Every structure is written in C-alpha cells, then in structure tokens.
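Internal tracking record. Fields below are filled automatically when a chain is submitted to the structure queue. Please do not edit lines marked as system-generated. If the sequence contains nonstandard residues, flag them in the REMARKS field before resubmitting.
Queue: standard
Priority: normal
Entity type: single polypeptide chain
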Amino acid sequence: MERSERDFKDVWIPREIWLSTELSLMEKVLFVKIHSLDNERGCFASSVLVIPENAQGNYDVIVESSTDLVTWAPFFSQTVTSGGNSRFYRTPIVKK
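SYSTEM-GENERATED OUTPUT FOLLOWS
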C-alpha cells in the first residue's frame, strides 16, 4: 500500500462552521478536507476552472477570500504573505 503524505486528523469542525446556516453540508465537509491537507509545509491545492466550448454568453471569473469560510469578500490581485490567520480562496464563475 502506498503511503499518503496527507496528515490525517480527527474530524473536527469549528463551532461557527458547523452551526452556520449559510454553508451547505458539502461546504462544511470541504472545510474538513482542506484542513486535513494542511501539514508543516502548509496546504497546497489547485484547481482548473473550465468554461465549456459550447457555453453561450459572457462570464465573470471572481476571486474571493475568507478567513472563516462564511464571510467572503472580493480579492484583488496582490502579494499575500504567509503566516498569521489562515485565508481561504474561491473562484466562482458567474454568467453575465
């Protein structure tokens, strides 16, 4: 069996995440998954966003950031320093 580099931890969801009425169960589980990827080197995850060739119309690709996975704010291109509070990013694609 191949050894995983993931740092498996007990499942723990912060109270404000678990009790949030703004997050779906899937978003709460995603929080736990991201947390489990964090190790001494930090958390590195990547995604590719694809707008299908047959999509019609224009789309906005929005970058948002959050420190609690509940409150999201627009994130404008800037240098981000490591350390301090954890910050999460998401990139929704919205049809205009």
